[in-house]
Write a structure and sequence with these properties.
Distance between the termini: 39 Å
Number of domains: 2
Helix content: 40-55%
Order of helices and strands: EEEHEHEEHEEHHHEEH
Number of helices: 7
Strand order of the largest sheet: 4-1-7
Structural class: alpha/beta
Largest sheet: 3 strands, mixed
Shape: elongated
Length: 206
């Protein structure tokens, strides 16, 4: 009896080095219970030292491996046609002096950016004019405006990034997280397209 196998490739998976990646690791499978365990245990790729940290598995490889064991199976593909395997090699720890240096660069860089922006828009003069309009008096240092403004600026940045240290304020993603997600999507698309071009070059050479 012909069996129907539904395959949905996962977009990206993270694996440890030097393991054998099985079909169940990179795809969702729906089929008869009697062959389900056998199908998800089909070896797809063994991670070796020659592999980079990114490996692309195409759905045609998966179909070929399944068809070699189940020739009469009706294989239905749903969703993406490639899976990106990211090999999680052990990362080197960041030294404390380097961390402090980067932190200082980011801190003073952000501070100078904010100060230069306020200088460009004459924020001090704006506060002075507001103080004069409201009170009728001139004050070169209207702290009643400057202090709340500075506090509000810091709180606004916290709300914008939606984080207090590692704690999320609410479930909505911050604009930075959305941009990082879009960047990762574009990067994954580039990796897949570049892998396809490399595969075509190899075919042309043969």
């Amino acid at each position: 009896m012909e069996k129907t196998i539904y395959i949905r490739m996962r977009h990206r998976v993270i694996v440890h080095p030097f393991i054998t990646v099985k079909l169940g690791d990179i795809a969702q499978v729906i089929t008869d219970d009697e062959v389900y365990q056998e199908i998800i245990a089909i070896p797809i790729h063994t991670i070796t030292k020659q592999d980079n940290n990114i490996i692309i598995i195409d759905v045609m490889q998966v179909i070929n491996l399944i068809a070699s064991s189940y020739e009469t199976a009706d294989i239905q593909i749903v969703g993406p046609s490639q899976t990106i395997i990211e090999v999680a090699y052990k990362k080197r720890g960041v030294s404390a002096p380097l961390f402090i240096l980067i932190w200082l660069l980011l801190f003073f860089g952000a501070a100078l950016t904010i100060m230069n922006f306020h200088e460009d828009v004459s924020m001090k003069a704006v506060h002075q004019n507001l103080y004069t309009i409201i009170t009728g008096e001139k004050n070169p240092h209207p702290l009643i405006f400057q202090i709340p403004y500075s506090i509000g600026l810091g709180l606004g940045m916290v709300l914008f990034f939606n984080h207090i240290f590692r704690k999320r304020i609410n479930e909505e993603p911050s604009p930075l997280e959305v941009e990082m997600f879009n960047y990762q999507q574009n990067l994954d698309h580039y990796v897949i397209m570049n892998e396809n071009r490399e595969s075509l070059k190899k075919v042309d050479k043969h």
